[in-house]
DNA sequence: CCAGAAC
């Protein structure tokens, strides 16, 4: 059971809500008969939470044979990359919307009603109380530029928000440097060339189920001529191990760095000859997408108005601090308004939210021009994010833009009572922002109608294409209107999104900003090679400092443990991870944002997208497994052109693996040995060095 | 394996 390894006690209960009770009762039921550990109550569960629902609502053992079938079909669907359980094509137009067998099984009415009756009200009351407390306490001395982060939306989603500023201040120059101008115009040059070939981006890939493609060909809008295929190069996607080299030809720079002994290490890195026996988990490096590089200086004089956004939206953007478009925004707004599918890669903190958010609002507005907003209308746009915090943050940016033209947004994410979300949907909203689980849930319950969605956005799109996310995302996208426009954004966008592009996008435009690599940023990357037994103390030493520090841990338990350890050492710290209830997650993040606590220990729930001003030190207590994770985690600092430091702790055994990861991330970082009490720790924590620099 | 995402 939960061992409080700390004498002071109390805090664990305060900040940590263990789930053993629920878990054990779950685990017995959620196991599926096919699993090897079947039948042993309390033994390890078969997998991720996503599987839980299968058995959960259909508890009786009688149904096991039916469930078994579901499970098998599901597995088959995973293998084949398509969702159908009954062998019929997954998407022959819309008809799938009306209750596919799997849905019925998984969400039978009884279970639904029950959950609503017993669960929601109680939790609702609880959350309400917490939120109110938060609200009260935030109201006072908080800097005015920050008041947006409190969980104020519990009452009324529709209320126009007064302050929106989860974004970096635009006044600082966090745009990519302008110092390279090989090219004059960011788009002009490719316009003339129209080979006009019909879409063919992924045509050459093998297993494309023909049954779900055809409907794409006769999509309504998309009148635009096809632009030259800058987009996906037509190379087939590599499966993990067969990649010849992890650094494609499109990553030319960095010749400056001393090359690692090439041949052997390159070919070996993905081979299972790694230290730990089972190296099933490989940091797959997908091909980078061939993208049109936007030259920052080419858009220097452009305004949002030039990009065809309406007056009100431009004004709302200005109030958000976005006076003029960042390069990624200047690049993506026109094609989005043209109705094109767009893929965009922009460095962390480069303004991606507005890059899709502003044109999305404009597009929805145009589509409704002339018609009244009717009560109970179903949403026209959908934005999917991988975490609830990110969904909230996106809404904080989009909502004021939408409200400026009379459109409504609502958040649809889990961990909070459904009632408010459902209520908003009932009244009618224009833009839904949320996470896959709850969206699919409400969709299945018939409370969220996605059939009118004309624009769907995937933020952190590559992440949304990873194992546990891909399928729900696919199912959700299939419910959107035929031919709906799709926008995929991420700082690490690569061919991992091929699965979605293949099925859902038509001749997408792909953009990135020229000269954006991680080294062009303002982040100082360091790797500390330490003895494992020193780790706790070194961490405490690093964290004991003035500025805001974000610590990443690999597991929830370790994140929790570290936050308690720091707290016990007299360094106020909070945790952020999935074992906390949503109220605590929201509150702990807000306390970090508002500066009421300076140390936050998080799992990768905070790795992507989350913006907190002024984090000047990111510590990776556990090194990440993937280079993308490294990039996203480190992207929590060095925002808005400020300087930041990323310190990664590793043991000696991990040096080589770490170097390989850094190579893949294209980051140079010195490895330095560190022991307890070393000056180096003082320097990194900024205790001796002048922090202003 | 972990992390994340629904009741």
TrEMBL record:
InterPro entries: DEAD/DEAH_box_helicase_dom (IPR011545), DEAD/DEAH_RhlB (IPR044742), DEAD_box_RNA_helicase (IPR050079), Helicase_ATP-bd (IPR014001), Helicase_C-like (IPR001650), P-loop_NTPase (IPR027417), RNA_helicase_DEAD_Q_motif (IPR014014)
Occurrences of domain DEAD-box RNA helicase Q (ranges): 302-330
Name of the molecule in the record: DEAD/DEAH box helicase
Residue ranges constituting the Helicase ATP-binding domain according to the UniProt record: 333-511
UniProt record similarity statement: Belongs to the DEAD box helicase family.
Region listing for Disordered, in residue ranges: 1-280
Molecular function terms from GO: ATP binding; hydrolase activity; nucleic acid binding; RNA helicase activity
Positions of short motif Q motif: 302-330
Domain of life: Bacteria
Any single Gene Ontology cellular-component annotation: cytosol
Keyword Hydrolase listed: yes
Organism: Microbacterium hominis
Pfam families with a match to the protein in the record: DEAD, Helicase_C
Positions with biased composition (Low complexity): 35-45
Segments forming domain Helicase C-terminal: 522-682
Amino acid composition bias (Basic and acidic residues), ranges on this chain: 64-263
Keywords carried by this UniProt record: ATP-binding, Helicase, Hydrolase, Nucleotide-binding
């Amino acid at each position: 059971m939960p061992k409080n390894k700390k004498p002071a006690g109390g805090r664990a209960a305060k900040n940590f809500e263990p789930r053993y009770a629920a878990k054990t009762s779950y685990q017995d039921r959620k196991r599926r008969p096919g699993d090897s550990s079947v039948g042993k109550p309390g033994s390890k569960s078969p997998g991720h939470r996503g599987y839980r629902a299968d058995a959960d609502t259909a508890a009786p053992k009688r149904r096991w044979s039916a469930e078994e079938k579901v499970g098998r079909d599901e597995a088959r669907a995973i293998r084949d990359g398509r969702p159908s359980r009954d062998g019929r094509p997954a998407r022959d137009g819309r008809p799938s919307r009306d209750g596919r067998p799997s849905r019925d099984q998984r969400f039978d009415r009884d279970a639904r009603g029950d959950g609503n009756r017993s669960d929601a009200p109680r939790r609702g009351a609880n959350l309400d109380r917490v939120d109110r407390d938060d609200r009260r306490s935030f109201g006072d001395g908080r800097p005015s530029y920050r008041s947006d982060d409190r969980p104020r939306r519990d009452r009324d989603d529709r209320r126009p928000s007064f302050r929106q500023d989860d974004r970096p201040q635009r006044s600082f120059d966090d745009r990519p440097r302008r110092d390279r101008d090989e090219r004059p115009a960011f788009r002009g040059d490719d316009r003339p060339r129209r080979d006009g070939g019909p879409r063919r981006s992924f045509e050459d890939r093998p297993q494309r189920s023909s049954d779900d493609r055809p409907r794409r060909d006769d999509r309504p809008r998309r009148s635009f001529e096809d632009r030259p295929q800058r987009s996906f190069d037509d190379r087939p996607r590599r499966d993990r191990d067969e990649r010849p080299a992890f650094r494609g030809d499109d990553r030319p720079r960095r010749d400056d760095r001393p090359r690692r002994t090439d041949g052997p290490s390159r070919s070996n890195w993905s081979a299972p000859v790694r230290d730990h026996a089972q190296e099933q988990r490989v940091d797959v490096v997908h091909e980078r997408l061939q993208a049109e590089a936007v030259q920052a200086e080419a858009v220097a004089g452009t305004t949002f108005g030039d990009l065809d956004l309406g007056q009100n939206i431009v004004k709302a953007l200005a109030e958000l601090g976005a006076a003029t478009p960042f390069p990624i925004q200047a690049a993506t707004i026109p094609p989005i308004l043209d109705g094109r599918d767009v893929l965009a890669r922009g460095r962390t903190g480069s303004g991606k939210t507005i890059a899709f958010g502003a044109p999305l609002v404009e597009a929805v507005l145009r589509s409704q021009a002339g018609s009244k907003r009717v009560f109970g209308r179903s949403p026209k746009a959908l934005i999917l994010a991988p975490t609830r915090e990110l969904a909230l943050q996106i809404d904080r940016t989009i909502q004021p833009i939408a409200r400026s033209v009379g459109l409504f947004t609502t958040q649809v994410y889990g961990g909070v009572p459904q009632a408010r979300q459902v209520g908003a949907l009932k009244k009618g909203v224009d833009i839904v922002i949320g996470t896959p689980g709850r969206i699919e849930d409400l969709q299945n319950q018939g409370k969220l109608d996605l059939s009118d969605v004309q624009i769907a956005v995937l933020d952190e799109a590559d992440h949304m294409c990873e194992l546990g996310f891909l399928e729900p995302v696919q199912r959700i996208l299939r419910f959107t209107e035929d031919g709906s426009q799709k926008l995929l954004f991420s700082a690490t966008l690569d061919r991992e999104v091929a699965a979605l592009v293949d099925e859902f996008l038509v001749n997408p435009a792909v953009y990135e900003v020229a000269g954006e690599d991680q080294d062009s940023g303002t982040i100082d990357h360091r790797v500390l090679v330490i003895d494992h037994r020193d780790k706790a103390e070194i961490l405490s030493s690093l964290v004991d400092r003035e500025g805001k520090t974000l610590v990443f841990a690999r597991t929830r338990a370790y994140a929790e443990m570290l936050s308690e350890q720091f707290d016990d050492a007299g360094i106020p710290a909070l945790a952020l991870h999935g074992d906390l209830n949503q109220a605590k997650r929201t509150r702990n993040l807000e306390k970090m944002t508002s500066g009421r606590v300076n140390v936050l220990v998080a799992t990768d729930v905070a790795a992507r997208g989350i913006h907190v001003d002024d984090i000047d030190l990111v510590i990776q207590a556990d090194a990440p497994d993937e280079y993308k994770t490294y990039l996203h985690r480190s992207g929590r600092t060095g925002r808005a052109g400020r300087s930041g430091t990323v310190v990664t702790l590793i043991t000696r055994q991990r040096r080589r693996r770490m170097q390989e990861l850094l190579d893949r991330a294209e980051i140079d970082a010195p490895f330095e040995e560190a022991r307890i009490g070393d000056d180096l720790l003082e320097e990194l924590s900024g205790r001796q060095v002048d922090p202003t620099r």
